[in-house]
Structure formats: structure tokens, C-alpha cells
Amino acid sequence: MKTKATELLGIEVPIFAFSHCRDVVIEVSRAGGCGVLGVAYHNAEQLREELNWIESHIEGKPYGIDILLPGKYQKLESHTITRADIPSLQRDYLRDYLDSGGIPRLPEEQHDELLDRALATIQMTPEQSRELVEIALEYNIKMVVNALGVPDREMVERLHARGIVVGAMVGKPEHAIRQREAGVDIVIAQGAEAGGHTGTLTSMILWPEVVDAVAPMPVLAAGGIGTGRQVAAALALGCDGVWCGSIWLTTTESELLPIVKQRLVEAKSEEAVQRRSRTGKPVRLLKSKLTEAFEQAGAPPILPMPLQTATMMESNLRVERAGAKDWVYSPVGQIVGQMKSETSCREVIYNLLDEFVDAKERMDGLVNS
Ligand SMILES: Cc1cc2nc3c(=O)[nH]c(=O)nc-3n(C[C@H](O)[C@H](O)[C@H](O)COP(=O)(O)O)c2cc1C
What we know:
This protein is α/β, with parallel strands linked by helices.
């Protein structure tokens, strides 16, 4: 396939995979698409380890990283977040909420170590993300995508000087225009049905609005894509490729816990709800007892990013260790209702392409020649 996106990245098919799993990243790039590693939960040391591994397995194919550059966030005293930053009101509320649900506490002797290790992964301030970009520049990355904000000129210029494509997630046409003004090369228009941080405009409305707002800049469609028919719809609406996040969660290469994968394949579309409790900003995720903690009467206020993320860490650990099916969750989009079994990344890509060709032939057949 040939689109502005395949030309820009030097890839064979305009399919982009956002994932926190390195195996997904390399599999999608090796299959002709472009894997993009989400690094919001990778500190400097972990990022180096992941990029070393990726580069020794990706066979020279293009890949990227995705960072968070939030415009609004809580400034931290130190570079990383610590236990002392977590307010006791929210911490104690969550502790009691999980206690009353029968979720065992972390073993006392391991508590601090487990929590400190989890907190050290959080990379959600622009300062932390800039450090990750500096590390990524030591590697052969082809793309850096930012979410939740606008990159500064200096960062864009440094990336361009190295031939790196700069992308940005957007949820409104005005955001896309701002990103173009900042020097970004490609925007990812992400509709409200997507997994992760989302706005309110749905893909059907957002994609063509963004395409028109920034033409002839390339636009990728994100949010609600899990079949080739949806790929055809995205390309029909003027997009140059698709950017998927949810569908990789139930692949064999995904490192999600088996119990979470099982919950995902059983879930219906309407179980992917928007909640602020994971990070402090609206995130679409699979509803569970934990995601509802801050929806209860008498719940304390939700904190700003990255404090809310940090505050949830202990609960996430407790629920995962307990393997509690009604409590585990993951960010996921409404496409979850169509994710019915575990398959490989390669199979996902082949299915998307096969169905896309079928959809195109069907459309061709609708027009009298
Ligand atoms: C588990 C998960 C985590 C995500 N985290 C991020 C993130 O850190 N940064 C980002 O730009 N997008 C993130 N997203 C959104 C994806 O980049 C992508 O836009 C979205 O998944 C597309 O919609 P879909 O879920 O319907 O495929 C995440 C999505 C999922 C499913």
C-alpha cells in the first residue's frame, strides 16, 4: 500500500501499533507496519533496556516511541514521584475500599519495595519525557509521538535534525492546527471511542474534520479500529493510515496478565468507560470494581496527573497480585466488544488487510461503470 504515511515512515502498510509491549512493537514493524512503544511507564534504565532489546530483534525496521507531554499537571518537588508525594486522604480511602472488597494487602515486608519500584516507572511530566527523548536519540528510532500537549520548538528541531518523524495525538481539529504550527509532521486523530486518554468527539466526526483542518498534512485515524472495514472507513474519510492500541492487548505477544486478557475477550463494547481515576485525566478503560472506586458516594477528590497515577499504584498492585477478576482492568477502547480471541500480531495485521481488500471490492461493486 502507498499513502503519505507509508512514504514518510518507509513502511509497507499504513498500520501503526501503540503498545507498552516490546514484542508487539517488533512484530508489527517486522510485518510491514510501524510499532510504537508507549514509554509513560518506563524510567531511563528500563527504556534503555527495552530499546536495546527492540533494536536487536526488529531487523532494522522502522519503529517509534510515544511520550506524554501534558500541558496541565502537578509539578513535582523531585524528578521522580515518591511515596511521600501520595496524599493520605486518597491513599487511605483506597486502602479501605480494597480491604472491604477482600483484596489482600501487599505483604508488609515487601510493601515499600514493591511500591517504590512501581512509582519509579511513572514518566508523566514534560521534564521526565524530555529525558526519555534524549535517551531515545541514542537509538535508531524513526518516530516520536507526543500525547496530551504540544512539543517545544527545540525538541522538534532536535528530532528533525536526526531525521526523526514527529507525531502528535489530537482529539480536536484546533489541536491538530496547533501541532502543525509547532512543526509536527503527522497527527493522529483519536476519537472518543479509543482506549487510553480520550476527548469527546467520536472518530466518525473527528477524522474528516482533522483531515480538512490540516490538509495536506498526513493524518492517522485512531479510535475504534479493529477490522479491515474500519480501516477502509478511515481511509475513505481521508486518513493516510490507522493507529490502533486496543487490538494488540489480546495478542499472544501482549504481556498483559492472562486474567486481564480473559476479561477483555469477554467484555462488551459498553464496558469500556471513561474515568478520571486512573491518571487524573479522562481515560477509557474496562470497567471494574477498582475503576469505580472514585465513583462511590463519599469518595475523595481525584488528584491531578501524575499524583493520581501514583496514588492508584498500590491498588493496581494489590488487585493484580490477588488475580481478582472483578477488580482487574486495563485501558481499552469500545472495540473491545469485537476482540473475541487471542491471536498473533501478524494474524491481526493480515486480517485487517484481507478485510480491507474485501471492503474495497464491495465498495467498487456499488458504483455502475
Ligand atoms: C492500554 C492502552 C494504553 C494507552 N496509553 C497511551 C499512551 O500512553 N500514550 C498515547 O499516546 N496513547 C495511549 N493510548 C491510546 C493509543 O495510542 C491509541 O490512540 C488508541 O488505543 C486508539 O484507539 P483504540 O484503542 O480503539 O485502538 C493507550 C491505549 C491503550 C489501549
